[in-house]
Structure to design on (605 residues):
């Protein structure tokens, strides 16, 4: 490995990156949301909880972006 | 047709307005010369967060998606909602991968995933495999955008193929003229229209149908009454694994498509990409709501248009729903949103396909000393050829053929994952092992798709992507996404192949990239190098 430019990052490793695992895994765990009840504004759990996972994804990616930029 | 005059007028006016924009785009953020492939194909690589957001969003969430996802929800229920977890999972999944791809591409002047593979593994053959896979996967995708426009036209009572030919001729002309700038600019209009339509739809339609609760109840009732076991407003034992593997497999595949990468590489720096990974899920929310239009159609008692073959065309369900509940002028706006929504991805896909051909086939095998101007010229012509090919696909072949091909496309593009995505992380794999894994993954994927019947339309083969584990001898009704299984086979073969090639000391290709190339950012002197001929 030769020397890189000074001031340039040599890696994208960061403990914050682990936060990205959460929104990848959460929406794939069907047992969490595969039910009709409880409903929210008429939406069965299956739909409102998965829509809520969008917010989890946005939060996690935003935090990782801010902490690693 | 007389009942659709207002809709038609609004549709045509908006469509024409967008056409003018497409041609004006050549002057927008104009570079000194558009005659190099980087300028034409990648828009000069200078797009900031906002443009990237519109461009990538307009690229990934296509007209076909807007038509097909609710059609699937209408027909099968919860399984069709896989599009939501799919688009939630994808961004955190590719967050780090895409920034690495951006850096290494900007150091070496890569325009396509195959360019990267060529340099990373020193194998033109592997690069050719990746390029052809990308081309084969992208072509039917472009044709499907036409299916989206056709669904809208059918609902306005317009049959025949002439309007589609005109629409694509216009598209071809302004992409030829303006390159990536055209879709980037049009994406603003497309998204504005889509957001307005969906916002109105999710407030107005449920209010008319007695609220969300009764919409879901109506859907549940319909599915309970059908003999099919796989449907319902929640998942069951048969399709739960399919739901998860389909969402995850689709997420893995999305950014392997060459056209997704085109939008990403056109961004200004690494932070633009990272910021977009948290901003793009806004489209996921819209997509989730669009999917639920399928249930609204059930509750409203919407019937799809019956096609020339006597079978109902499920893809017309959303246009029919709009026609049924909205006033005519707003239906016109909604139709225009879908129609224009087809143009953006079709333009970007044809540019990406053209780049693949030019860089990885033309320059690699046909004209090794091609100049920048020659490359740009070939690319522009191929982009035209690709669009003509897409139109011919729809005119000459059964549209079902394009849908089948697109299904196959998702499965085969996944087979480039070990070379492209894992290649960004590790050089451990041997080029021979990767090639063997790719070939076997393809073979297994095609075999599984061939075995899948579709009882709904009586097809014996290529009837879907849900592979029954019973076919492998398991005593179960569970199904899995065929692409996912094929990828596992691919990975196993790539690992075993690599070990075998190493054991027999078969020569491996040189790696033209260095570790630090994967992390450089805008402002680094190495990033400025856009010299095409100096990339290898």
């Amino acid at each position: 490995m030769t020397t890189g430019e000074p001031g340039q990052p040599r890696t994208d490793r960061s403990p914050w990156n682990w936060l990205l695992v959460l929104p990848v895994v959460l929406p794939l765990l069907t047992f969490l949301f595969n039910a009709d009840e409880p409903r929210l504004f008429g939406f069965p759990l299956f739909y409102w909880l998965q829509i809520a996972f969008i917010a989890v994804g946005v939060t996690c990616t935003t935090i990782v972006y801010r902490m690693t930029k | 047709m007389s009942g659709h005059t207002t809709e038609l007028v609004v549709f045509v006016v908006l469509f024409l307005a967008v056409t003018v924009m497409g041609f004006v785009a050549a002057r927008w953020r104009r570079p000194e010369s558009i005659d190099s492939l980087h300028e034409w194909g990648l828009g000069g690589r200078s797009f900031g967060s906002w443009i990237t957001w519109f461009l990538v969003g307009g690229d990934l969430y296509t007209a076909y998606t807007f038509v097909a996802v609710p059609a699937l929800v209408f027909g099968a229920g919860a399984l069709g909602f896989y599009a939501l977890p799919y688009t939630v999972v994808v961004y955190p999944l590719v967050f780090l991968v895409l920034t690495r791809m951006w850096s290494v591409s900007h150091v070496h002047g890569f325009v396509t995933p195959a360019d990267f593979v060529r340099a990373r593994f020193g194998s033109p053959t592997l690069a050719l495999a990746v390029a052809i896979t990308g081309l084969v996967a992208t072509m039917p995708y472009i044709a499907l955008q036409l299916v989206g426009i056709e669904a809208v036209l059918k609902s306005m009572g317009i049959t025949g193929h002439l309007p589609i030919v005109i629409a694509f001729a216009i598209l071809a002309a302004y992409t030829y003229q303006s390159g990536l700038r055209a879709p980037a600019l049009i994406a603003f209009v497309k998204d504005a229209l889509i957001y307005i339509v969906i916002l109105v739809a999710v407030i107005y339609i449920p209010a008319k149908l007695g609220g969300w609760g009764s919409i879901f109840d109506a859907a549940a009732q319909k599915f309970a009454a059908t003999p099919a076991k796989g449907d319902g407003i929640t998942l069951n034992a048969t399709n739960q694994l399919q739901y998860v593997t389909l969402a995850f497999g689709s997420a893995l595949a999305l950014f392997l498509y060459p056209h997704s990468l085109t939008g990403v590489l056109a961004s200004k720096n690494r932070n633009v990409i990272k910021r977009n990974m948290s901003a793009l899920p806004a489209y996921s929310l819209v997509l989730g709501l669009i999917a639920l239009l399928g249930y609204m159609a059930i509750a409203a008692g919407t019937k799809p248009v019956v096609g020339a073959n006597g079978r109902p065309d499920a893809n017309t369900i959303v246009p029919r729903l709009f026609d049924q509940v909205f006033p005519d002028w707003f239906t016109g706006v909604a139709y225009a949103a879908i129609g224009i929504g087809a143009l953006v991805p079709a333009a970007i896909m044809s540019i990406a396909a053209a780049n693949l051909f030019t860089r990885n086939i033309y320059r690699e095998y046909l004209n090794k000393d091609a100049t920048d101007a020659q490359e740009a010229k070939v690319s522009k012509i191929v982009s035209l050829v690709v669009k003509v090919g897409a139109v011919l696909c729809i005119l000459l072949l059964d549209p079902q053929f394009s849908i089948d091909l697109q299904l196959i496309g998702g499965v085969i593009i996944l087979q480039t994952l070990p070379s492209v995505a894992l290649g960004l992380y590790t050089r451990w794999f041997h080029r021979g092992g990767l090639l063997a894994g790719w070939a076997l993954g393809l073979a297994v994927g095609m075999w599984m798709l061939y075995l899948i019947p579709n009882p709904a339309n009586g097809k014996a083969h290529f009837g879907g992507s849900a592979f029954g584990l019973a076919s492998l001898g398991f005593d179960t009704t569970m199904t899995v996404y065929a692409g996912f299984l094929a990828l596992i086979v691919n990975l196993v073969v790539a690992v075993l192949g690599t070990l075998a090639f190493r054991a027999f000391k078969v020569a491996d290709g040189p790696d033209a990239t260095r570790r630090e190339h994967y992390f450089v950012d805008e402002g680094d002197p190495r990033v400025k190098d856009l010299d095409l001929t100096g990339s290898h």
